[in-house]
Amino acid sequence: MVSKVSGNILRSALLNDVPKCFGNTRNLHNNMEKKRFYDIIVAGGGMVGTAMACSLGVNSKLSNRKILLLEESPEKKWEMKPQYSNRVSALGGHSKTFLGAIGAWDHIESARFKAVKKMQIWDANSDAVITFNDENLEKDIAYIVENDVCMSAINKELKKTPVEVVYGAKIKSYDLPNEEEYRKNGLVHLHLQDGTTYSCNLLIGADGANSKIRNTMGVQYLSWSYKQMGVVATPTNNIVAWQRFLPTGPVALLPLTDDLSSLVWSTSSDEAKMLLELNPESFWKNYPRYELVENVTRRLSDVMATILGPTVAAGPRQLQPSISSIIEGSRAAFPLGFGHSTRYVGHGVALIGDAAHRIHPLAGMGVNLGFGDVNCLQRKLSEAAYGGCELGDHHYLLQYESERQRHNLPRMIVIDALQKLYGTSAMPVVLLRTLGLQLTDALRPLKKMIMKEAAL
């Protein structure tokens, strides 16, 4: 028989020396910690954070793990109203697939959304235009979904999972361990303003662009303001998926129904204030044209018509739309900026969505990148669980960071460059981008490659 002292020594040795891939038994020190211990805590209950919690909850490899979602706002009951919301997202095919995998897309389909089958993009300073997906109108290139509809759909599926949710959870501080501390006890601690303390093996930060978790990690965050506002509204009498690059910033009209659209206009703060009050008939205005640009454009069109044929070179185009009215109360504005965390992970912590990256809305990539983060991270955590490792195992977190940074950063750089390229009316720049649009529109393999690379 093993003595009590020998048993304690043996148990202590096992708990201290056992590799992390044998589970998190040594983390549950006492009854209090057991009561408020979770394998994973997701901080932030927006679309991306709620989707993260839901995807973990439906993952069969994580079915025996305790998962908690902390949301600062109170729980909201959503009801679909006849009037469309002014905050929408253009979801890509990969986002649709992800939402389908967690069961949310069925709810979106039963509510409302609009498939985009074609898009045309104009330059305000020239007649240059590029048309995407003009050859295959049977294929959807994006799905316009109101944020409230998407959020409600994810929440409906979340309620079916064993994930616990605490609303009104105002987090006061985080205790994030260094490498030595995490190796010793494998715990992250969270302190709420009401005095409650939680601990977990893995903390997932989905707390937005001003992430307190990212700040606590102490990682470098590259950011700047575009000194622009995004004006949103719901115009009537437009059925075209349309984007026009203006010197002050891009404006997009995304179809909601056959006669309603969602407008997203990136512009200067002063003009944004004006647009919030402007009559709909006065929304569009002409911008300066250059004779040299128009002459070169015509010559290039003639050359491409000779080489590619007049139909291919010219490409199909539609007249840009007009707006007859704006739905009452649908106008709003929000600031625009760029941000990217040099690290997405630490010991026992990972960032997703806006907490890790913030992007200009001109390509509609924001929430798509966030859903991509969620899908990648839940896959890596599933692999860790299947391999018998702790969910905060740094090896798997680093795999998530590498995969997502390789995906996100190049796209963010391209979008930022486009914002700067189209943010001027200088004639040499207008000529450069006009020729670029013309050539890209004529070279269909190049357009297909762009659409493939833009897939989220």
TrEMBL record:
<comment type="pathway">
    <text>Cofactor biosynthesis; ubiquinone biosynthesis.</text>
</comment>
<dbReference type="GO" id="GO:0071949">
    <property type="term" value="F:FAD binding"/>
</dbReference>
<keyword id="KW-0503">Monooxygenase</keyword>
<keyword id="KW-0496">Mitochondrion</keyword>
<dbReference type="InterPro" id="IPR036188">
    <property type="entry name" value="FAD/NAD-bd_sf"/>
</dbReference>
<keyword id="KW-0560">Oxidoreductase</keyword>
<feature type="domain" description="FAD-binding">
    <location>
        <begin position="342"/>
        <end position="407"/>
    </location>
</feature>
<keyword id="KW-0274">FAD</keyword>
<dbReference type="GO" id="GO:0106364">
    <property type="term" value="F:4-hydroxy-3-all-trans-polyprenylbenzoate oxygenase activity"/>
</dbReference>
<dbReference type="GO" id="GO:0120538">
    <property type="term" value="F:2-methoxy-6-polyprenolphenol 4-hydroxylase activity"/>
</dbReference>
<keyword id="KW-0285">Flavoprotein</keyword>
<dbReference type="GO" id="GO:0031314">
    <property type="term" value="C:extrinsic component of mitochondrial inner membrane"/>
</dbReference>
<keyword id="KW-0999">Mitochondrion inner membrane</keyword>
<keyword id="KW-0472">Membrane</keyword>
<comment type="similarity">
    <text>Belongs to the UbiH/COQ6 family.</text>
</comment>
<dbReference type="InterPro" id="IPR002938">
    <property type="entry name" value="FAD-bd"/>
</dbReference>
<keyword id="KW-0831">Ubiquinone biosynthesis</keyword>
<dbReference type="GO" id="GO:0016712">
    <property type="term" value="F:oxidoreductase activity, acting on paired donors, with incorporation or reduction of molecular oxygen, reduced flavin or flavoprotein as one donor, and incorporation of one atom of oxygen"/>
</dbReference>
<comment type="subunit">
    <text>Component of a multi-subunit COQ enzyme complex.</text>
</comment>
<keyword id="KW-0809">Transit peptide</keyword>
<dbReference type="InterPro" id="IPR000689">
    <property type="entry name" value="UbQ_mOase_COQ6"/>
</dbReference>
<comment type="function">
    <text>FAD-dependent monooxygenase required for two non-consecutive steps during ubiquinone biosynthesis. Required for the C5-ring hydroxylation during ubiquinone biosynthesis by catalyzing the hydroxylation of 4-hydroxy-3-(all-trans-polyprenyl)benzoic acid to 3,4-dihydroxy-5-(all-trans-polyprenyl)benzoic acid. Also acts downstream of coq4, for the C1-hydroxylation during ubiquinone biosynthesis by catalyzing the hydroxylation of 2-methoxy-6-(all-trans-polyprenyl)phenol to 2-methoxy-6-(all-trans-polyprenyl)benzene-1,4-diol.</text>
</comment>
<feature type="transmembrane region" description="Helical">
    <location>
        <begin position="37"/>
        <end position="58"/>
    </location>
</feature>
<keyword id="KW-1133">Transmembrane helix</keyword>
<protein>
    <recommendedName>
        <fullName>Ubiquinone biosynthesis monooxygenase COQ6, mitochondrial</fullName>
        <ecNumber>1.14.15.45</ecNumber>
        <ecNumber>1.14.15.46</ecNumber>
    </recommendedName>
</protein>
<dbReference type="Pfam" id="PF01494">
    <property type="entry name" value="FAD_binding_3"/>
</dbReference>
<dbReference type="InterPro" id="IPR010971">
    <property type="entry name" value="UbiH/COQ6"/>
</dbReference>
<keyword id="KW-0812">Transmembrane</keyword>
<dbReference type="InterPro" id="IPR051205">
    <property type="entry name" value="UbiH/COQ6_monooxygenase"/>
</dbReference>
